[in-house]
Amino acid sequence: MKNIDVIGVGALLIDRIASVEYFPSVDGETFVKRLEVRPGGSAANFAVACSKLGLKAGFIGVVGDDSEGSSLLEDLRKEGVDTGGVMRANKLPTGQVYIALDKEGKRMMFAFSGAADTLGDKDIDSAYIATSKFLHIADLRNISPLEAAAKAAQDVETRVSLNPGALIAVQGYEEIKGLLSNTDVFISSRGELNQIFGTENLEFAVKKLFRSGPEIAAITLGHEGCMVADSKGASHRIAAFKAKVVDTTGAGDAFCAGLLTSLVQGEGLIEAARFANAVAALKVAKLGARALPTREEVEDFLLRQKE
């Protein structure tokens, strides 16, 4: 029985956010105005966002057997995310991401995956995946367990979405083609798509993507919004909503959650993309990857746009 709407698989990390006036050059220095510690990790952010949007969400990943790992698990549970797929590792600490954030909301990130990167093929529980309608794979350098998870999902008729992020995209097409072949919905930034397929031509890259396996593609285009397409030839550009940008960290995760929430609930691709843009617009207006809107906040936002 598929009693979970979505399960995220990937990293659950601590975000250490330094707010700065500007990014220094090599060997330079900048003053940190504010330093905050918050829960993060792309796949975990996605699961929390889906829960806030009204879905039943779960998570598969690894944290350290330390106080940070315990704190992250407690936070997931408070957000209503099922942690039945989370494992503890005693050989490595919980992963952390060091984020420098400038006054315009732009960022630089330095990721120490720690325990998160110890997720192995043997840790993939097919029975747990079988309880979900969608398995969402995100930004984890170790490809092998992600491929195993995607294959397990296809075997139990659970749809697969992939948001590669920088750590997967940088590996290129040849390294991730097995993962793509078991992906139904592909979501990435334009830069990540270009990196995977080695081209600046968006339309050409999308065509190559569809020949690789996915049936739906959603490509974020920054302030221009997004492009959504399907393997049958439909393609649409959806404009972004105006938003005050405070922090772009987690904006992609929020977009993914908005898109998957709408698709799970039976909405069409255009409606799903518009909803996803709204979720992302509300997220970037606040500090922190988990500064995520509720379903009611997104619906109120969309209603105000019509007015």
Keywords:
UDP-N-acetylmuramoyl-L-alanine:D-glutamate ligase, four-stranded mixed β-sheet, alpha/beta, globular
Any idea what the CATH architecture is? 3-Layer(aba) Sandwich
Calculate the terminal CA-CA distance, rounded to whole Å: 41 Å
Give the count of helical stretches. Answer: 11
Find the structural class using helix and strand composition: alpha/beta
CATH class, named Alpha Beta
The number of strands is 13
The profile of the biggest β sheet is:
9 strands, mixed
Point out poorly predicted stretches: none
In terms of DSSP E residues, the strand content is 25-35%
CATH homologous superfamily annotation: Ribokinase
Please provide a written account of the structure.
- The strands form two sheets. The protein has a nine-stranded mixed beta sheet with strand order 5-4-1-8-9-10-11-12-13, with helices on both faces. Strands 3-2-6-7 form a four-stranded mixed beta sheet.
- It has one domain (4-23, 32-306): UDP-N-acetylmuramoyl-L-alanine:D-glutamate ligase (3-Layer(aba) Sandwich), CATH 3.40.1190.
- The radius of gyration is 18 Å and the shape is globular.
- It is α/β, with parallel strands linked by helices and 307 residues long.
- Strand 6 and strand 7 form a beta hairpin.
- The chain has eleven helices and 13 strands.
